[in-house]
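Suppose a colleague, Dr. K., hands you the sequence of a protein chain of 84 amino acids and asks what its three-dimensional shape might be. Before reaching for any lab equipment, you can write down a predicted structure in C-alpha cell form. Begin with the sequence itself:
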Amino acid sequence: MKEEPQGMSAACRRFEGELQSYLEGEARPFVAAHVRDCRSCSALLADLEEIRQVAGQMPGRSLLGLSGPTYGRGWRMKASSGRK
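The predicted structure, expressed as C-alpha cells, is then:
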C-alpha cells in the first residue's frame, strides 16, 4: 500500500491520481484548476514539465538508433541481456 504524505488533501490525492493522464495529453480540467490553488502540486507539475522538455531535447534516442515505443522495450531487452 502506498503511504501518503501527512497532510495530503483529498484534492491533492485526486491530482496525483489524474496527473499521469494529464501529462500524456488527456484533458483533465481538475488538474489544471488544482494547480492554480495548490502551491505544492503546482511545483510538482512545473518540475515534471521541465523534465519532459529537457529530456525531449536530449539526443539519446537518435544516437542509439531507437525511436518511439520500441525505445523502452529495446532498452529493457539490452539491459536484461547484459549487453551494453
